[in-house]
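Ticket #4471: structure output looks truncated?

Reporter: J.K.
Steps to reproduce: submitted the chain below (265 residues) through the standard prediction queue, then opened the result file.
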Amino acid sequence: MDPTDGGKVYGIDLSGKRVVIAGVANHRSLAWAIAKELHAAGARIVLTYANDRVKEMVEKLVGEIEECPLVECDVSSDESLDRAFGEIARHCEGRIDALVHSIAFAKREELEGAFTETSREGYHVALDVSAFSLLAMTKRAAPLMTGGGSIVTLSYLASQRAVRNYNVMGTAKAALEQIVRQLALELGRKNIRVNAISAGPVSTLSARGVSGFTSMLNDHSERAPLGRNITAKEVGTAGLFLCSDLSSGITAETIYVDAGFHSVI
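Returned output as attached by the reporter:
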């Protein structure tokens, strides 16, 4: 069997499942890698986008996914979130089975200078968009998970370690992982699982905004037990696993997909 053919080859059949994916920016996005795996497994996909600038790029991708609605959703606005999930509910006949949250943002200047120079506004923006947005989306998604479901977000090792130039995004990822645990506790009795994937560095649009990213890639490949960097597809298949019943007993976890880098010093 060729594992590049997607989920059904892995024995995972998500036919009839409805999945909302937030955070696709272009073909390199980890959210897009997850979307492709879920689609290959038979899931019905709804993609959200932040604004018209991103919409143009995402529209070029959705031709690869049949009947994939696009829904505008600015996670920094409660009004936009309410409109978006009202539209999602209509597209999905009032029920969704999974939410993939792959949203993170910090102002470029906050990722280039000294951490001590983080501005109050920059801190608020990073935490609001990169962490609180998971809580805000879950508030609206969970009532639609009438048969239980899975919520997956994307984190990074800077939640646990100090990473040069990652600055306030490390703070945001630490908050994000705490939100995962708290949501898992609150939603578990509703059979809704909440997990994070802590991915190793992959050359995405957002990652390239971190100063010194190329050096980060090189260091990772040299020190990781597997002796290489990961691929976006490996994050995609981890997302497929967490959205499927194969992970039915897993919640409140941060799963590392980083070639083992987190285990070495």
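Triage note (M.O.): checked the attachment and the full token line is present. The chain has a mean pLDDT of 93.
Status: closed, working as intended.
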